[in-house]
Design goal:
The protein is mainly alpha-helical and 116 residues long. Helices cover 56% and strands 0% of the residues. It has six helices and no strands.
Amino acid sequence: SLGGLSDQLSGFRQVEAELWEEDEIGETLSLGERAALEMESRRFADAQGYAVDWNAVGQLDDFSLVNVIAQIAPFDGAAKQALLESRGLSARSELIIQLMQFFGRHDGSDDRVTLQ
């Protein structure tokens, strides 16, 4: 007999997930944080040759801007995981800026950032 463990042996890892996103929906960046994120995003996009509709970007609320960048930026899995784990809009925005600065200094031999 497995003594109470049988319901846990489904062959799948069981976890309890905590939803952070709902807590962040009402968060906003300070004017300085927003300006820094937009400035670094422009520099990064220009350096990578991306065509961006900056008028549309300017219309996004802070929550959407930070999370869209986190989703579409060409970072590796470890960097994406770090973005997922960063708690709060300001922390995620700062990490995005750091990753874009790192990637901007990258030598270009690989098209993805490696966070170690």
